[in-house]
Amino acid sequence: MTPRQLLATLTFIGTAMGFTHAQAADLTISCGAVGAELQLCKDGVAIWEKRSGHSVDVVSTPNSSTERLSLYQQILSAHSSDIDVMQIDVVWPGMLAPHLLDLREYLPEEATQGHFPALIDNNTINNRLVAMPWFTDAGVFYYRKDLLEKYDQPVPGTWEQMTETARIIQQGEREAGNSGMWGYVFQGRAYEGLTCNALEWIDSYPQGDTIVNEDGEITIDNADAARALTLAQSWIGDIVPQGALNYTEEEARGVFQSGNAVFMRNWPYAWALAQSDNSEIKGKVGVGVLPKGGDNGQHVAALGGWNLAVSKYSDSPELAAELVAYLTSPEEQKRRAIEASYNPTIESLYQDQEVLAATPFFGTLYETFVNGVPRPSAVTGDNYSRVSNAFFNTVHEVLSGNTSAEQGLESLESELTRIKRRRW
Questions:
Q1: With bands split at pLDDT 50, 70 and 90, how would you rate the model's confidence at 108?
Q2: Which CATH class is domain 3-130+304-361?
Q3: What is 140-302+375-420's CATH number?
Q4: 406 pLDDT exceeds 80?
């Protein structure tokens, strides 16, 4: 698909979903559509429109972050002015920076204050602030409190315990008549979400490490990484449905929220939806840290999150920056946290009583959110996309049973070495 066709597709989606104004809008913003994400974006934009007197078209992008990155890269490479504000992943600033404005030239200093310094640093490339933090993320573990109580099982602390508990409850529930019950669901499609899941599995083991360490050394081919992936492969078709190999966040949430899974790995956004009035599991869900790898492992959560950036090709950069300033403000981030459990990037909101009342685990899992394990985007730079693609494709092959963990990781290390060559 050409950049022009991609832009036409985005415009069509926005029109079909009712976001196009009768007259040409002053700005266009692209937002994700995972869970309540698109509606939240639309609502925040509507508030700004009313206050500012300007109009904004909201268009959605693919749920798969890998597909969204490809879309953005083609649009930006075409130097198109059709999209003014873009929602970008926490690992993309380095890759997209040449096409993005330095927001420090457009925003007042107070607009950047109060955000977690690490996120501001992450979005600062060559002393240019190319994106503002909008919401942060870390992987969390959802579990059915009622089913754990029914089967007299504790919240599992290790992946091995999770595996056994999932089997016990899955079997019991199927025997009781729920033939569609599964023990665990996660994001298993070959895309960026699988990179996050697999990084959590591997780094949770004592010597599993990350894909590439902070010094740029490739560390993935090791016994604990193989141990983690071998265990994960054993889940498929046992406690995890075969279809999970094509799940993104929403497919996993759909199974869990319909009452057909005991455990789920997902992002915090799923909490508000699981607690909604139309949820089959309202009041039955607990949230905690992800299991660790064996008794000597550690609890690991992949760092996620999204930012707002302004295209360098925007015809209205000042106005676009004003929209970004409002959408990333404490007021708007508080609204999003209360209404849909999106993690703020402003530290003070984690002590806000209204926020904590709506989403209690923001307090109990605070350390998880601020100490999430980053993907190796900083150290691998422009090569990160190739690194992640190689990683999640390898993991997917292992999960699919097409190769062993040991063989897959050996081949992956060779491929990453070719990508790195002498240095990243």
A1: very high
A2: alpha beta
A3: 3.40.190.10
A4: yes
Topology agreement, domain 3-130+304-361 and domain 140-302+375-420: yes
Q: Which residue has the tokens 């976001």?
A: 19
Q: What is the pLDDT of residue 115?
A: 96
**Residue 75 DSSP class:** H
Q: Give tens-digit pLDDT for 38-58.
A: 999 999 999 999 999 999 999
Measured CA to CA in angstroms, residue 84 lies from 106, 161, 392 at distances of: 14, 48, 31
Helix axes 405-420, 384-399, angle to 10 degrees: 170
Rounded-to-integer distance, Cα 222 and Cα 410, Å? 9
DSSP 8-class letter at 110: G
> CB–CB of 101/317 below 8 Å?
yes
Provide mean pLDDT across the span 311-320: 98
Q: What's residue 14's pLDDT?
A: 42
140-144, strands of its sheet edge to edge: 182-185, 261-266, 140-144, 285-288
Q: How far apart are CA 123 and CA 320, in angstroms?
A: 17
What are the sequence ranges of the domains in the chain? 3-130+304-361, 140-302+375-420
Tracing tokens 């240019």 back to the chain, one arrives at: 128
Instruction: For 124, list phi and psi in degrees, rounded to 5.
Output: -100, 110
**The amino acid at 286:** G
* DSSP assignment string, 180-238: T-EEEE---SSSHHHHHHHHHHHHTSTTT--SB-TTS-B---SHHHHHHHHHHHHHBTT
Determine the average pLDDT of the residues in 237-261: 98
Residue for token pair 């950049």: 3
Tens digits of residue pLDDT in 118-161: 999 999 999 999 999 999 999 999 999 999 999 999 999 999 99
Residue with tokens 């107070």: 110
Q: Compute the distance between CA of residue 31 and CA of residue 28 in angstroms, rounded to an integer.
A: 10
Of 107, 130, 163, 147, the closest CA to residue 294 belongs to 163
